[in-house]
Structures are given as structure tokens and as C-alpha cells.
């Protein structure tokens, strides 16, 4: 580090001072237990602990002191004693730390008596790299490689390419006959072409429509084929085979749908003057278009981005001569012979680009320390000497990517001086799509080695590395979200080998330049961790035709793994994952069963023992291996991937159905997070805003998760800066971010953000991030206010909130469409949107107050009150909340459950109507979708209708989680029902949001201050006989176990050091006991009587309370029991 370092003064204990009874444990740097990427001014966090015989009354932190040491153990910075209860995200405030350097820190804390405890053990950490310190180039390979042509399952599959030449000579006239079907988007043919972007483009839709236009010029990563002048259009006058009227909810958020059409017979003739197009024997086009005299043109296949077609046969003739007659549906050998005539490579960037980079690391001494840093777009994994060291993933826009690091000291130290250590990196870039920004492929690696003699070397990625195509075939798209089918060619991999140095016939890597570059201007150290664990099948099944099917017992986000004892070189196996089985026992590939996704993993075998390991995960329960005998296998399983969280709470009860529902919610929340919160791990892996909010509520409450939520909040902040920073756009956020289609919002999703930030602050106490987000939250509040007219038929209400399109113009309300249960979408002033606008205003007001801006707090709180008054006055008709007002001011004739639950859950409802509204909600049962069900649950709980909430959770005779369990669900669904013909997700975690309410209101443990330093424990009044569990806080678990006997509540609870709890019990007298930590009831329990509540008084010994209000106890850390005395009731 530059500058002078001063050793912190020695810490002295004053004469006569009592030793502190509190010390720090669980030290984290930047939120990580093992941190190699700390910033120049890192943030430190810790938990609190006490000796076994300590006084729990002193288990409150009143101050701290932090010391940072160098590798010699010399203190060079100390915070000095700081009077503060802060223990999360405490910032280092010394001179900026050097990049890629090892440090350690310690902390001691001051207890409630004002005495410092012992210093903690030293916690090592290492700093990461600033953008200027990488000493490495972003690298890639030249575009092109294997053409996106593949024969699979009796058809030639073609995807994502501007030009795939048909294997025949250029022609002046021809007749082309093809049996084909568009699978995604349009099937395309280029006529009279001399190359990409030339000639004419004929496009065919699944609905039987053909369009002839000038060929456009484009290349991947374009999001769509550019428009060109249309020359002619025609259509077969019939419905798409097997499809009638659109099903409810068929409007996809992406306005696209992967719907394989029926096979169609296309005939195209061109005599040089007229082009004629027929479909299924019906002439659709006859266009007079004279060609250049004497000119011969090429025929080529053309598939736009995220477009795919399949050809069963293709025949070309000219002047009576058959030039090509390929039958891809005629059998494996014949199809392969046909495919051999086609050009096997392309110069264009592939829709699924795999690159293998190689170099050698020449060690010039004995290694004392080595760190490996890596960033990639999109995914990369790196090995040294054949040992996997590090993986990294980044889907963001330029400047918004992440990097990771690993300690490789032990691996390199095992190699003697002079060793040439092979380094191999596999880069996977799969184009723009849902959750992936449109950017270019790239890899950045910096291996930094320090020798025992003090020398340092940096081995950075650059043009001296080799960069060849990795052994993966191009097998089309899984779905219209742009996810390619992963097809590992094990045979090609075995032939290629893995040389120890760059091979002479492998081209050099192409450099974008030294980091940072215009394409990759900045990187951020990742603060989230991805967990990976191998999961074996719960059972092996046999389909009626003998196909082996592995059943994992539940839906998992996983990467299939299959080990073969031997293989047949060149044989392609269609390993296929799925959610359900057909009646015959095979994996169901239907649209609804597969989430409209090709869930296959084609694998081409090599000879001898081999292992197939997928690189890309999908959500699935079943994995079938057609054509494979059990004797061929040595291992079958999957690597489950999910976010790694710091802790986990728990819940059990007297109701076994409720416990099963809780497990369903728990698993869904866990598996709904990978690199980020996801819509679903199978189809739309993007981070949708509403999904992120809902899953975050569950993960923060149950797993003590903070990092993924902070990451998501930052990323949606970036979306506001990138797309929504001025004019009428200001205050909005992307509906999904990052994303391949750029700027796109859903208005009421944007309104969710302030309430989400407020919940994040409650769970963490992190005021720094709140302050960073506050300008955007104020913009969101102002965005809502801009759409409140001062006069007119909807005066005072948010009206036609700007943004959105299609099924979510001015507000989505709920999704999918059946989850709206008839909500009146014609309303200009929707009740749900107005309620969420109120929430945005009020949360922003409270957060402004926390951030010190009282003027803004007062302004937004006043606006919230005015909006609340307008909602109460204008949207209640004949005592019932209606869906909203129409543009002319007429109230909607429809009164949905949403219209009542949203205002009631947010405290808008007039107290005069609150109880009646809650009873109405309870009587309706479940009439809200999974996306908004937490509003319904909160509304019922606000009026004490806990049994009604239990009905929602446990009754299988209505939509809800118990019905999902009855239908075999092991992961929550996107909708309560899977309507045949839709592609609703069967791995959709957004209804797991109610985990928060279960822990807060059925277990009865609620946060009342940031980070859970104060909690409220309130056993519910409900039909459950007992419940128990725990809730993670910054300082550890708060556990509660309550039991109801004869109408009386008995409670045992455990409070960790650093947490103070209020226990609220029904009126009466209680005997209070304690155990552990040397605590006594007399010393540690204090009666607590809120003045406003008129709470009855009691005392630790259980003397009778006066009045019938609940009894509050204020308790310190320890384990406490509360036993009711019947004679005191």
C-alpha cells in the first residue's frame, strides 16, 4: 500500500474495569466468510456471543473497535472505540487497501455495561482487482464454426443463421419441394442469393402464411431480423392444426410463443421471371420478378434469431434434373449421409458459441501465493493442470458484469520451479435472451503468482492464448427465450484431446484490448455464492417400452450427469429431462408438460468409459435415457444448483398438511435462485422484478439471505439509469433485468420497489444501500404522482399509469390471466395500482426519514394520505371495494378479491370496514393468483383471521398450495392450474413469498428493528395445537415453540445474544422460567406495558394481570418458558 502505515496503539484495560461479557464471532468480509475480492474499503460484519455463565442483560452491543492487520500481523489501522450498535456492513475507514493483497481484521465489542470483551480471532481476507489492475486482455475466438444444422429425431433442425447454403450449384431456374414445419418463429428460404443479405427471402409461419421480401443483412447477436421491403404475401385459409381459439393467458410477456406447427408441404418454382409459391397444394403467390438476365443464384436456408425450423425432406430440381433429394425422416444412416452433403461450418457467429482457450503457465520459482481472477460473458470455467479451479457467470450489460476469484496457491505450489502448467478455459456464450443482455462473448483471466523470493508475475489472458471451437454441436433452441440446446460431442472431444500447450492448428485468441475496453468497461466483484451439490435419483423407473427413467423425487434446478462404462463412437443419445411422464412412462414432451421447452441434452458418444456432464441447468424431476441399458451406466444423477444462503430457519406444526406446504414453499424459495432470482430455471431464467420481490421476501425471512436481494436491487437501479432516467420514463424499472430485448417495463412492478427496499432495510439494517437507492425511490413516488389528475372523472386517483404494453398496459394486476379471476382490466383507475402507488409513496416517505430527508418524508407521506382518502371514497361502492373506475368515472361493476385485499393489506381500508372486508375475503376462498397471494394473506392476518389463512394454505378443495401437492407438485407453479395448451411454469417460486407470513404469524416471530436486533414473539390465536421453529437474524436464530392446551398458550423461546425480544401472550398470569446463560427470570424479564395499548401488567413470577389485554414481556437473551396459571385467568 502506498503511504505510511501506522500501527494501532496497544489496547489497555483501565484499572478496575470489569471484563466485557460480549464478543464477536462469525466474522464476514463484504458479507462473505471467505473473501478474495474485497474492495479497497471493505465492509465488515459480525455476530455476537457470550460465555456460558455471562449475564444476558449485558448481551447488547453498545460499541466496537476494529483493527486491520497486514500479513505480518502488524496493525496498521484501528477504528478506535466507536459508540454504535452497528455490526453489519461496518465500513473500513482507513487508507485505501492495495489490490490483490492479503489482510486480516479483528473486532472487539462493548457490552451493555460499557465494557469491552476479548478481541476476536483474526479473520483473513484478500482484496480484489480494480479495473485498472487486471493486466489482462478480454479475448474471444473468430466467429463461426459448426453450422447450426443437425439431424435429430428424424428431421433436419435449422436455427439462428442468416445463410446456410443448400448443397447444389447456383441456378437460373428451379423447383424446390420441402416438407417442413416452423418450430419457433418463421422458417426461411433465400432465393436468387449470392450470399448473406442478398437476394429474396421467403418466410413461412406455422399458421400457413408466406411472405416474400428482399433479403436483410444481419448477424447474431441481433435481436431480430431487420425489416425489408415486402414484395408479396399469401396465406392458407385455415386454422393451425390442433389449435382453435387462444387459451386464457396465451399472451406471453415476450409476445412470442414457441408453437411447433404441423408439417407443411412447400413448393417453390422460379423460372427466372416468375416466382410461384404453393403450400399443401394451394398456390399462394405468383409474383412476376424478372431476374438479371443470365444470372444464377444460390438457394440457402435462413433462420432469424430465436427462430427454428425442421425439414423432413428437401428436393431441388432444375430443367428436369434432380439436383438434391434429401430425406431426413428416412432413418439414421440415410439422414446422416444426406447431412454429409451440407456445408458443416459457417463463418457467421453461432447462436450457441463454445470456445476452448489454452495456454501454459511457466513458473519461474517456488510459489508462495497465487490468486486466480476471472470474468466472462456469459459463462466460463477454468482448469489448471486438469483441475477445475473456478467458474464464473455474467449476463449483464457492458459495465455491469461480475468477476470471481479463487485461491490456487496449493495447486501451483505443488509444481516445482520451471514447470509448464497447462491452463484450459471453456467459455459459453449463448446470445441475447431472457435474462441475458445483448453483448459480445469474451473471457478475462488474471493469474497472479508470488514466489518465495518476493517476485511477482501476472499471467493474463491475451492474443498469445489459443482459442478454438469447443466440441459442442449446434442443435437449435430450447424455446423462444433464446436458450440453445446443449449438445456435447464426446466423440469430437476425444479426437481433439487436450494438449498441454497451444496447438499449431488452433488459431490464436482475438483480443478486444486490455481491460477495461469499450465492450467491457467495468467489472464488479460478485457478492453472491452459487451452491452446487450432486443429487442421486430417488428411484429408477422403466417405461412401457423399456426406456430407463431416473426419478429425482422432486423438481430440481439441475445439470444432468451420466457416467458410461463404454460408448459407441458417433452414437447420439437423446438424454431428456422433464417435469412429468406420459401414461406409457416416458418423459412428457408436450407443450404444457415441458413449459414449451425442448428439455433434451443430446450427447454424441466417444469410445470407452466417459462422463457426460451438462453445463447448463434446467428445472426437472425426471431424466430419461432412451436406448441405454443399465449395464452401460456407472452413475446417473444431477448437480443441483441454487443460491447459497447464510442460514436457514424452520417451521413445524400440529397440521401435517401445513408442514408439507411449508416444505413446498421452502424448496421453491431455495431453488428459485441461481445466479440471480429467476422467473423459472427452465424457460425464462431472467430476473423478473415481481418474481425477484416475492422470492426475496421468502429468502430473507427463511434463509437470512441479503446478498441476492442487494444484488437485485442494484441491478434494477442500473436498469433505471440505463433506460428510465428522464422525462415520463423517470421512476420506472425494467420488468426483467438484465435482458436481451432491452427496455421493457410493467408499471405496477415498478411500484413494488419501495416496499421491497423497506423490507430489505428491516431485514438487514443496511442504510448505505437505502441511501444509494433513495433518489430512484423518490423518482418512483413521483412517477405515481404524475398520473394522478387534479380534476376529471378519476380525480385524485392514479389513472392509466404510464408504461407496459399488451396484457399489462397500465398495470398487470396479476399473472397469468386466470389468476386475475375476472378483474376488470378496462378500468382506467385500477384499485390494485392505486393501492400499490400508496405503498410506494408511504415506503418512500419512511425511507426518506431514515435517510435524513424529513422534508421529502413529509411530502410523500402527505401524498400517500391524500391518495388513501381518494381510494376509500371513490372505490368503495355499496360498502364493497370495486376493481376501479372506468375512464368516464363509472365504478367497475366487478368487485374482485384483489380490490379488497390490496387496500386492506396495506392499511388503506377505513377501520369501519376492515373487519367486514376481511370476512368477505375469507368467504371468497382463493380468488387471487400466486403472484399476488401474499396480499390476500396479509389482508386476512391484519384482521386476525388466522384460521382463514390456514384454510388458504391447507385446503385442497380450492386453488392453492394444498391442491398443488395433491397434483404431485414439488415446486410451486406459475398458476394454480396448468391449463392444457399453455406453458405455465411448474417451477415458479413467486408464491413462496408467504413463507414470511408463516414465520411471522403462525410461528409468531417478527422483526421490529433493522437486522432483527429487536423481535416480537406473538403465538397466534388459531386452530393449530402447536407450532415450533426458528427465524434467522443478524445475530443468530430466534427460536419459538408454542403449544395450546385447554385454550391456554405455553411458550418456550430462545433469544441469541444481541437480540432483545418482546413476548406478547393472551391476558392472564404466567410463570416465567429460564435456563442457560446463568439467567434468572427475576433478573432478565421486565414487564413491558405500551401506553397506547393499555396492556395488562404482569411480573416475572406470574402474579395476576389486571384487564383482558394481551400481556407483554420484555426479555433478554437466553431460553425462556412461559407457563399459564389457570387460576389467574
Radius of gyration: 32 Å
Please give the CATH class of the largest domain: Mainly Alpha
Multimer state:
single chain
Which geometry do the CA atoms define? Answer: globular
Distance between the termini: 69 Å
Helix percentage? 10-25%
Strand content: 25-35%
The poorly predicted ranges are 1-15, 239-258, 498-504, 1088-1107
Q: Any idea how many domains?
A: 6
Tell me the CATH topology of the largest domain.
Glycosyltransferase
Calculate the mean pLDDT score and round it. 92
Class inferred from helices and paired strands:
alpha+beta
Number of helices: 18
* CATH architecture annotation name of the largest domain: Alpha/alpha barrel
* Major beta sheet summary: 12 strands, antiparallel
Question: Count of DSSP E strands?
Answer: 58
Protein name: alpha-L-rhamnosidase
Keywords: Hydrolase
Pfam family, one: Ig_Rha78A_N
GO molecular function: alpha-L-rhamnosidase activity
